[in-house]
């Protein structure tokens, strides 16, 4: 194949793509920009621009305090119910609240209290550092018996499945893992790990931040206990938009939120001095939700529901397979390594490429090549595939530009001291 | 005075008001609406509408992930520094993060760890129930020795100052109070209570939610240790906008955030597995901030700085005095009680009126009279004075309409089962 043939091939794939029209539902301000970072901050849905105007002028500016009774109070459940459809949960099992980190703290602390007599939290070193930091904070607050066990991945790509399974014991209170691993894109077998944990009497908490909206998740099929996740990545909810949490129905009344806040109080306007947790998931709310950021989650979720998560997954895998094929032909000979599983069922929706000049290549890609990936130390160039708007042409051109950066040594002008974008 | 004379008098006061022009800097969508709830949700600054458009189209829609390096990462400190000027703090002593409740949890837990050997938290029953709920949650997480002591107010209006002072002991780890009390508007003498607590070796945490932007606060003059506060009331930051926290410089490196999150990590993009707190106030950040809600705080704070907090306080007191005079003449004979201190130096920026038919009067005021106050059980009609946009005419008409509701028995059609707005 020649390059021109290849470009035509990419365009033909785009032309045949029955999800391709969803790209028009997003703001594409710079036609020439190739955005490969939707797994970090999703693009702006056009419907969110209209909603933002309504939120500002009508809901805040005009209705003022009345808006709390006109949809704001119930927004955490309403949007949670929509997210539930993406992750195989009942509508009353998901609620939007605070941030992923804060929600992790709430659920881990609640789980440890329920699991009295068991003092270990089990995880792996592929988990988000942000999650590990929260887990360390939880351990600090508890008595000396509590421990955090971090199983190492052998290669930094694949989850240490058998080590985790071997480590589960009558001491394990909670197994918590990132379902799709943020660096390598490795995808855990949720059902298998959950079953193994349950066999040992442990609860399981899944961080779905890199799965929700990208990978079909079936919390019920896996009988998962707890989950958290982010809304600003594949859900396109906007920068730093509040996160969600899932608690299986039968656990909801057994768990208590350690961050016992007014929004989780049973009778909000009685102003009683004693905290009484609300029934159901509302008890896991704490503070007043940031409504501008919260409301704007809804349009992105609706786009995903409209497209259908199974179709999105199928396209995502076609696109990541395409990217891996191009890597093999164009980039592997130039020293790029594949840091993502080749097996489709073990892969989320991004592909990480390593290179000994990874950071400088990343900088050249951003500054000279109109491609926005992201970078994860030490040398991962992370390419996010967001099938609602990523085109085959985007992928093809990204590969070609990576190739040019190395063959033409365009990275050499960059220093490794440059700041890194999230 | 006749009523027409009175209205002319109110209008004359407005005409003489050198802050009156600030009302034009806010969206006033319904001219006929009298908004007396700016102490619960501040109005929309016009500058925030422009900023919201920029945030949506330019910062999120166009710049995408790049915006994190173009102002988003530093927004918590940048906006915190502006708030610092309203509360007598250094710029590097205030940061915007999460919600008031979450920030309270962080600082209380951090303070208790620093005060090992002391196990009591002291507060009063005039404090926000939301704060008491968080304090209860903190106590639940700690060992059995820790206690929450809630001093009762004798009359529900004035803070139990001498009871608090008498209760301070070598067991008191932390005294925490709401500087302006949410029901009665009672204003604590921050310097006196802080000094008394320090004499006993206790730390002090002030909740400034009903003071910031309404009352001059001088944390340094009082040598206050810790503070938290809300941005969506007098700061006009938008519904549920993130809160702020203050930690005096010399305490910053001594305190550790129990909600140890990625945003508070020393080297954000090293992705090390061990949490290392950032120097200074950033360690008190936890999750990724909700940028839409966070960014929109800034225009409201800038308006307050432009007007000047001392001038705002002077107007607020003139207006609350005016309201109290009108109450005495028009409403006291109808059974309305004043539930706010008459002494100006003991009063924040709202006035609470009680009545045995309080809730039904409140409902008539909202539904029939185009006045939006708020209501706090059991019978408080709370009238917020927000001198950036409250007019003397607003106050005069509110009083007249309250009078009409009672004299014409307009409240009788309402049930006390109606829902209540925050």
From TrEMBL, chains A, B:
Cite the Pfam families for this sequence: KYNU_C
Q: Name one GO cellular component term.
A: cytoplasm
- Please state what class of enzyme this protein is: hydrolase
Q: Which domain of life is it from?
A: Bacteria
Q: What is its EC number?
A: 3.7.1.3
Against SUPFAM superfamilies, the record matches this protein to:
PLP-dependent transferases (SSF53383)
Keywords, comma-separated and alphabetical = Hydrolase, Pyridine nucleotide biosynthesis, Pyridoxal phosphate
Q: Which residues bind pyridoxal 5'-phosphate?
A: 100-101, 128-131, 207, 210, 232, 262, 288
Give one GO term, molecular function aspect: kynureninase activity
Q: Which reaction does it catalyse?
A: 3-hydroxy-L-kynurenine + H2O = 3-hydroxyanthranilate + L-alanine + H(+); L-kynurenine + H2O = anthranilate + L-alanine + H(+)
Q: What GO biological process terms does the UniProt entry carry, in alphabetical order?
A: anthranilate metabolic process; L-kynurenine catabolic process; L-tryptophan catabolic process to kynurenine; NAD+ biosynthetic process; quinolinate biosynthetic process
As cofactor, the record names:
pyridoxal 5'-phosphate
Entries under InterPro entries matching the protein: Kynureninase (IPR010111), PyrdxlP-dep_Trfase (IPR015424), PyrdxlP-dep_Trfase_major (IPR015421), PyrdxlP-dep_Trfase_small (IPR015422)
Residues carrying N6-(pyridoxal phosphate)lysine: 233
State the similarity comment: Belongs to the kynureninase family.
The record ties this protein, via HAMAP family, to:
Kynureninase
Q: What does this protein do?
A: Catalyzes the cleavage of L-kynurenine (L-Kyn) and L-3-hydroxykynurenine (L-3OHKyn) into anthranilic acid (AA) and 3-hydroxyanthranilic acid (3-OHAA), respectively.
Q: Protein name, please?
A: Kynureninase
Q: Which gene encodes it?
A: kynU
